Amino acid sequence: MADLGPDPEATDLVRQLITNACVNDGSPGSGGESRNVDLLECYLGPAASEAARFEPSPGRASLVARIEGSDPSAPTLMYLAHTDVVPANEDEWRRDPFGGELVDGELWGRGAIDMLNLTGTMAVAFKRLHASGSRPRGTLIYAAVADEEALSVHGAAWLADNAREAFGADYVITESGGIPIHTQAGVRLPVVVGEKGVFWRRLRVHGTAGHASQPFRTDNALVNAARVIERLSSFTGEARVGESWRRFVTGMGLPKEIASLLTDPLRLDEVCQEMPSVGLARQAHASTHTTFAPTMARAGTKVNVIPDLVEIEVDVRGLVGQDGDEVDRMIEEALGDLAERVEIVRVVDDPGSESPLDTPLWHALGEIGRRFHPGSELVPFVTPGATDGRFARRLGGVAYGFGMFSNRLGFEQFSSMFHGADERVDLESLGLSASMFEHLARDFLTIP
Is position 202 within any domain? Predict the structure, then answer.
């Protein structure tokens, strides 16, 4: 692997992005992404002189900077980053989640992995390319957007609807990917080529109100809801093996019998149950199933009143190609005879999307990957979570998730830190990402 060591400039910028604590809890007034946009504008300096700033709601700012290409027929490449982070429970962390502490060659803090590490290193690469004075054939865009952690209403979704000329691009690189996986066949670098759909549902479970001092033979909506939650949480629809999952498994160089099991829809559930690694089992299951996770419930008005209504919030993630109607049919199948007691309310319908693999950017990523991890090969991956890449795809672009990381963090540990405690990134990975983004733009956009 290329040994570049830490990049103090990248480290300092990412640390400041973390300490700005742009926490997005989903409420319209949260986020405060304007703080990170102010920081990025100041850092970029002349490179941001012609940047466009968009702020559809107070404090929810996004920044789009450009280095215009000389050839209108050449491809446009966007580095698409988000500046917000999810909340952090300090009691679960060993260090201040917004302290930006440097400990044993690692930078700690909320957003160190998701995705301020890439937000900062993309900005570093963009600034260095601008400072070089060399004009690319194709246009390079750096977009640092708000609200990714809450469905992007104030960020990429708004830009796609209201600022397409500034936001659209032929090719897009966004978060995740690039974590080296060491296999018997060599190093594999996953590229996020797509994402599952988000289908949030509110289940309204009905009952009959009554006095709680006489619970015998009552129609308690809370008891009904407990049965609903149990059925949803234990429901496993049929496994579906898509082409990206098949190529991921075969690309990992696994023994033939194991690869066969992981791509057999009839055996996948059994294999996931028996996997010794819970993290990998969850990834395999999520990559091949529609998932249902009850996450919140509201019930009752008073301790001595039998509730007549319970609302359950369910996070449903559908496979690429599924729509809301299919999701609702699956919920009804899971509930069985309880379905007639439940009203399904559609909160979010955001179908999954996937980019093709045989593209110039895919091949460019393969070349750049081998430069940093000699002998490595790319493998496609559809992430269970949502990214802003879906908006780029809807505008006609090809969007991948990719960074460049050292061997210090494993794939399972990396994945567990998304929205988890003790989130951190090693400084070598920050240096690798900054260098990779600079070299990728030079190669792909033919910058002298």
Answer: yes
